[in-house]
Structures are given as structure tokens and as C-alpha cells.
Write a structure and sequence with these properties.
2 domains, 4 strands
Length: about 150
């Protein structure tokens, strides 16, 4: 120490020790699979099994973008509401958003990053776009054979 201050090496060692302690604490929380929030304990939420349908996703991706209307670069976008990281919702809730292209990031990326709507607007848009997508595919007779319809509530 010089004049009561820590050396760079001491600060780096202290930070490394703190990171290791934080990582250890995080691993203990994850392994217990029980979260503590505001003094209460919560069991993990049961995971549902969202339906997957590649034919449906391909049909959705072939549609024009629900936001800007561009065609030919569509992607099946899943709603972000009600899901966790790396989890997808039911494919039948998907709607078409354009992907990246030369000089443009695309609406799908902007939508997922929250750059297009407020949280409330995004949630309303997800419901509306999903319903319109299902309606259009049904009215055009393109609903994939054997795929159960999604009951609107």
C-alpha cells in the first residue's frame, strides 16, 4: 500500500474474490430452484409445453412484415410477453416481422429489443398481430392440416 491506498493488484484480487463469491451465491440459488423475493419464497413456475409447428412458422414467415409491410424477408416472430429468456411461446401466437437486410436491421430485431413500442403497446400489438395472422391463414385456407386451432379466449 502506498499512502493508505490499495495497489492495482490488490484491487484486482479483491474484485476477483467478490466475483467468485457472487458466482457461488448465484449457483446456490439456481441449484435450489427456489427464489426468494421480498422475504417470501416462491417455487418455480410450472413450464407449459408450447406447440411447435414448422409448417406454420414457414407460412407466417412468408407473409409481409406486420409493421412495415416489406415482403420476402419475413421471420416468424413470437410474442415476448409471458416467456423467459431462451423460451418461445406457442408457434400459433407468432406473426411476421422482417429480418435484417442490407442497410436495415429489420423490425424483428427492433421489436425484440424494445425499440418500436412501449411495453403496453408491444403487448397489445402482439395479441393483435397474432390474431390477424391466424385469421388470414384460416380465411385463405392455408392453416396447416392436422394443426389444432388456437382457441381464442
Amino acid at each position: 500500500m502506498t499512502f493508505g491506498r490499495q495497489s492495482i493488484e490488490q484491487r484486482q484480487a479483491q474484485r476477483a474474490a467478490q466475483k467468485a463469491a457472487n458466482l457461488g451465491a448465484l449457483m446456490n440459488v439456481r441449484s435450489s430452484r427456489v427464489g426468494v423475493y421480498a422475504g417470501t419464497t416462491a417455487a418455480p413456475a410450472p413450464k407449459d409445453n408450447p406447440l411447435r409447428s414448422e409448417p406454420y412458422r414457414r407460412l407466417v414467415a412468408a407473409m409481409p412484415c406486420c409493421i412495415c409491410g416489406v415482403e420476402g424477408v419475413g421471420q416468424a416472430a413470437h410474442p415476448n410477453t409471458g416467456k423467459g429468456m431462451a423460451m418461445k411461446t406457442d408457434d400459433r401466437l407468432a406473426f411476421s416481422l422482417c429480418g435484417p437486410r442490407v442497410g436495415e436491421v429489420g423490425c424483428h430485431s427492433k421489436f425484440d429489443q424494445g425499440g418500436l413500442f412501449t411495453k403496453e403497446e408491444r403487448r397489445a400489438f402482439e395479441v393483435f398481430a397474432g390474431r390477424m395472422t391466424r385469421l388470414l391463414l384460416t380465411k385463405q385456407g392455408l392453416w396447416p392440416q392436422g394443426l389444432p386451432t388456437l382457441e381464442e379466449v
